């Protein structure tokens, strides 16, 4: 466990001062925060500094502060089938317990590797948001469920190519015989 000092002015750092350490005390918040950098997988992601709408509840419990919430953010990327730009929105739910200290995490104070801790009265919500969004992003985003994609031969969009679009496929083993036509009248008279 590495303890770092959080900057209280950072957008994703939230103060729990008004909760104290009184189990049962609760606060709801609906901040709009700028999206962190590099929040993407493959062909789609949340643009840097895009508005992320949060609806969160902070609740003091015996071991720490339980954060429960929903986040909505815009998505920008490209269709994995036709490569057209696409935009949509993602909504994710998350819940995480921020322990007061390693002693509160597990009996004997041996906090787990993935446990999150308060830095004094501050907590950093960015890693929780990042994990929730990255796990929910589609690995192969599509502009529509019926997107036909691109022609594998020439790269034209199949939706625009028309029903008669096609390519003559010649087996490479017979390619050397292409153009070889023998007109033999004796075979026709038979």
Automatic annotation (TrEMBL):
Alphabetized Pfam families for the sequence: YceD
Source species, domain of life: Bacteria
UniProt-recorded name of the protein: DUF177 domain-containing protein
Species assigned in the record: Planotetraspora mira
């Amino acid at each position: 466990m590495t303890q770092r000092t959080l900057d209280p002015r950072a957008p994703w750092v939230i103060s729990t001062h008004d909760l104290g350490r009184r189990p049962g005390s609760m606060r709801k918040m609906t901040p709009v925060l700028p999206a962190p950098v590099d929040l993407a997988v493959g062909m789609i992601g949340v643009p840097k500094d895009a508005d992320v709408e949060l609806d969160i509840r902070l609740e003091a419990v015996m071991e720490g502060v339980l954060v429960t919430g929903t986040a909505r953010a815009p998505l920008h990327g490209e269709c994995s089938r036709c490569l057209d730009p696409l935009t949509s929105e993602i909504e994710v739910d998350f819940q995480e317990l921020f322990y007061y200290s390693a002693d509160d995490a597990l009996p004997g104070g041996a906090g787990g590797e993935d446990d999150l801790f308060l830095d004094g009265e501050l907590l950093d919500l960015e890693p929780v948001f990042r994990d929730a969004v990255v796990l929910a992003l589609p690995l192969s985003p599509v502009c529509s469920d019926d997107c036909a994609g691109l022609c594998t031969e020439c790269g034209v969009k199949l939706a625009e190519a028309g029903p008669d679009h096609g390519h003559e496929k010649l087996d490479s083993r017979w390619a050397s015989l292409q153009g070889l036509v023998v007109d033999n009248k004796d075979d026709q008279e038979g």
